[in-house]
Amino acid sequence: MDWSLIISILLNCLYAGAAALDEDCPTLDDGDSLSQTQLLDRLTHGCRYDRLERPITYSETGQRLPVDVYMRAYIYFMQNLEAHDLQFKIYALLQMRYLDPRLNFRNVSPKRRQPILGEEHLRNSLWMPHIFLANERDSSILGLTEKDILTSISPDGTVIVSNRIKATLYCWLNLKKFPFDEQHCSTVLESWMYNTSELVLHWEQKRPITYDGALHLTEFVLQRSWSNETVINADLSDLRHGAFAGNYSSLSFTVHLTRVVGFYLMDYFLPSMLIVAISWVSFWLQADQAPPRITLGTSTLLTFITLASAQGKTLPKVSYIKVSEVWFLGCTIFIFGSMVEFAFVNTIWRRKKSVPVKKLNSKHILKSTLSPHLLRRRSHARSRSFSGTALHKTADTGSLGGTGFNNYLTINLPITTIKEGQVLDQQRTSRGVQKMDVNFVESAFGSMGSAQSTGAISAASSSQTLTNNNRTESAGHQEEIDLSGWTTLTPQEIAMWIDSRARFVFPLSFLVFNLFFWTFVYCI
What we know:
Elements: H1 3-24, H2 36-43, E1 57-58, E2 64-65, E3 67-78, E4 87-99, E5 116-118, H3 120-124, E6 131-133, E7 136-141, E8 149-153, E9 158-170, E10 182-191, E11 199-203, E12 209-211, E13 220-234, E14 246-259, H4 262-279, H5 290-312, H6 323-349, E15 355-357, H7 362-370, H8 372-398, H9 420-431, H10 438-445, H11 449-471, H12 476-483, E16 487-489, H13 491-523
Helix pairs in contact: 4-5, 4-6, 5-6, 6-13, 8-11, 8-12, 9-11, 10-11
Domain Neurotransmitter-gated ion-channel ligand-binding: 36-259
Catalytic activity: chloride(in) = chloride(out)
Protein name: pH-sensitive chloride channel 2
């Protein structure tokens, strides 16, 4: 056996295998003579670079370190919050930076000091940290013919990737003080695949969040913004990161927005104030003018409801009460109150009987107006009781055999003393024909004496008094009220009095309502 021949054949095979390996894994020698594309192809060749594996670095103690990814955001444009969908849109440039030692070409091509630039194709050939917007509804990378992606590789292996994106993000609005509300909307970035033991997100130290100088919101004012770094704990119950549990790095930046109320003041609050004030014009119309007052009340109420419903269509249906709803309810109550006031005074105007009032003040007028029948019954009862007492006293003193004889007669309250001469004079003046001679009465009855004759005179006086009482019985109620300090008001006078008071009560109450409302809006 020729061993030399066998050994030569084996050596040839080894040389051929080594040559094949050299062809599959191109060398990095003389990197300065290579083009940018050739250098990148050799750096990212499969024999040296695996794009499915993250960059691996070790500490001085040999511990495996996570990849540090630094983020920066530049906000081009921010669209107004859409309250009915609880979302807002941003157009931004997101930039991430991390170190990949496998792409270090400083020693391979020492003369190449500028970073290697590329677009989407270069990015697709590199390992990229998977970062997603946790509160996004929709997002996309902007671009016309190609996506707006810029990739940069520095000589030390630092990779910078910039993307221009458009994102629609959820923002859970608090509308309790709408339209005087302030909102805090966040943009949340999280690591999707790697937990904190493999990848950690950081904001850049200098100016992590930048806003375009021409950024302007029509309905809101950007007060301030701040950034935050945190760790999200994901478990199998919420599947926040697929089926993998663990701690994931998260970044967020929050904007503080204050709503501009100029639009709502001019298009909602001031018109509603004018509508409420217009409803008070009915207080200057007479209570019996039903058509114009009803037309004015219903038209103002319907106009205000239409105004409020148009403003409320842009808001979501929430379970809590908003400030705008408090204003709507208050104005509705004032407009509806003016219609109720008209119904009240119109009912009073159509009454037939006058109303007795003890005193001319609001308390007694309203009390007498609300319960006129009860007061009328009480007044008649007092009048009848006074008349009955007077008749009883007259009968007792007028009897001829009575022991309680007096020389005066009680006719009604207040008690008035009437003497014999006054009764005869009153009879002569009122009737002119009836004359009574005291001497004739004394001679007719003889032994009965002067006491009995005086009793006859008293009886005659009592008879005349009864006649006078019958004539004035119809006016007894009015005389009693007048004598007791009461006043009678016609229904028309009461209706006009209520309208005159409403002209001041309603504006004053609306002013107090505004005082409490605006104090709550701006001070609480």
